[in-house]
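Checked the freezer inventory, then went back to the computational side. Two predictions to log before the end of the day. The first one is the construct we discussed on Monday; recording sequence and tokens without edits.
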Amino acid sequence: MSITLLQLDQEKSALLRIGHFENHQSEKMALSKLSKYNWEKVLSKLPTVEAKRPALLLRSAVNEIVAESAKYGNKPAEVDFAAYKNKLKFTGATVDKLEALYKSRKSPGYFAQVPEFTVAKRQVTASVLERIVEARKQDIAELTAQLEGLSQLTISGETSVGELTDRFPEISRDIESDIKTHDWAGAKN
């Protein structure tokens, strides 16, 4: 069974929802899910190289996010000013001044926010995808009903004469008229 572009878009939307972080704990959890995602399963369902390309690009982007998070996600280690003060004996007073300066500064806070337009676009896209999925489910149900109807029309060794009469009424009438008139195939009158 091959995966459709709709299913690939649903996977992408799920990954984007995973990637939208609200706090540090959910960020760690989301990164854990992203790093453990089974890309081989998705790629194995794609039939052609052209179909695999978007999934490979998405995997590349996810790997980049995970790598950047591993690199910059944790707070840097505290500076051990006492060790530097002992190492740099002739500039010990300077180390004290640097320590005071270092502790008095505040790092700028970074809070990633998704623009409102992007959030609205994602919501609209998700609702459209949900409607498409529902329409496809209805199509599948209708086609399944048609298939069941067609399967009842097949002729096999278990088909009764009554079912054949119902299915082919014209042939049935011809046979009945031939029987009444004793018009047998190949028989000479």
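The second is the one RB wanted added to the comparison set:
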Amino acid sequence: MLKGTALRCGLEGIPTIRLRSVLARKVPLLDLIGHKPIQFLLTSGKPGRFNLEETNCLYFSEDERTAMEEWERLLVGLSVKHCATFFVNIQIGTVLDLDDSKTRAGLKLSDEDLFVDWATSKHPVDTQLLGETVAATTPIAAIRFPSDADNHGKVLEQIP
């Protein structure tokens, strides 16, 4: 993947898409109802596939099945059982579409880079560095990418 200045320059001219859709999100029920008033857009500040710790962002799935697959993948070994599903109707004008092979090629982002195990890495992985660069230096509002939990699903990371 492009790095540093090359990445910032590559992002300047990269095409984006507009996205109008209804997205799904599953969250632990107790986390949701533990806040008064209920915070549907609560961010944990925990690291994710395209963000480092303390970078607030929201992950949504493009369909309920993918949201369930993502939820189940995250819960392996945990005792959390009850979840809430909610849906958002979004309209975003600047989405970096990493499901598009030309976009990935423009960033020199390989499939290996895209699906690297970020959760067990001791250092930030390329997708996290990409997300941080997008959030800090571009007007891009979200990143769309293939789910690693559902072979056909797509996930959207929205940068607040």
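For RB: The two ends are 24 Å apart (CA to CA). Residues 24 and 87 are 5 Å apart (CA to CA). Let me know if you want it refolded.
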